[in-house]
Design a protein that fits this description.
This protein has helices at 33-48, 142-155, 160-163; strands spanning 53-55, 65-71, 84-97, 101-107, 115-121, 123-129, 135-141, 166-168. A five-stranded antiparallel beta sheet has the order 1-2-3-6-7, sandwiched between helices. Strands 4-5-8 form a three-stranded antiparallel beta sheet. By secondary structure, the chain is an alpha+beta fold. The structure holds nickel (II) ion. Nickel (II) ion (NI) binds next to helix 2.
């Protein structure tokens, strides 16, 4: 087996009522090797979960960093093998939001056994830094926009049940993308 880099580690995902999920995370100012390792491990952990997004507080690191991976398509229910787009964003900030909002059902890797209906902006613009600290800006809509709003909430100590119009325990077989 070819060795292509540092081995990645699976990180422990914390869940409520862990206080790190309620803290306002601090901005990242240093883009060192340690940060790169954390990012790689978060991507690995998100994929293994499996989840569609992960925020650093969910692995016990109270810093403003999120990873998101979801099919880049207009389709509301994309095929399992649809090509996915990966975003790594440091210090993300929502700078524009659509007036339109829509309800959707969300789950969260840190809130096991519960889903909820949450209203989110259908389109947003997010500004932040890439993993090397260079400025980046993305325009996203639909599910991708929903995931970004969910992850950025995590950086401010907010979890989806805080915003949900209703929450429930999913029936067996009722599957949802988790972040
Ligand atoms: Ni979450």
């Amino acid at each position: 087996i070819p060795f292509t880099g540092a081995p990645m580690s699976l990180l422990d995902i914390v869940s409520l009522p862990d206080p790190v999920l309620r803290r306002k995370a601090r901005k990242v100012t240093v883009f060192d090797k340690e940060l790169q390792t954390l990012i790689d491990n978060m991507i690995h952990t998100m994929r293994e979960a499996p989840g569609v997004g992960l925020a650093a507080p969910q692995v016990g690191e109270s810093i403003r960093l999120v990873v998101v991976e979801y099919p880049d398509t207009d389709d509301d229910e994309p095929d399992e093998d649809a090509p996915k787009k990966l975003y790594v964003m440091v210090n993300p900030e929502i700078v524009e939001t659509s007036e339109d909002k829509e309800l959707g059902v969300e789950g969260c890797l840190s809130v096991p056994g519960l889903v909820g209906e949450v209203e989110r902006h259908t389109r947003i613009v997010v500004k932040g830094l890439n993993r090397q600290g260079k400025p980046m800006k993305v325009k996203v809509k639909g599910w991708m926009a929903r995931i970004f709003q969910h992850e950025i909430d995590h950086l401010d100590g907010i979890v989806f049940p805080d915003r949900a119009t209703r929450v429930w325990q999913p029936r067996e077989g009722e599957e949802l993308p988790l972040d």
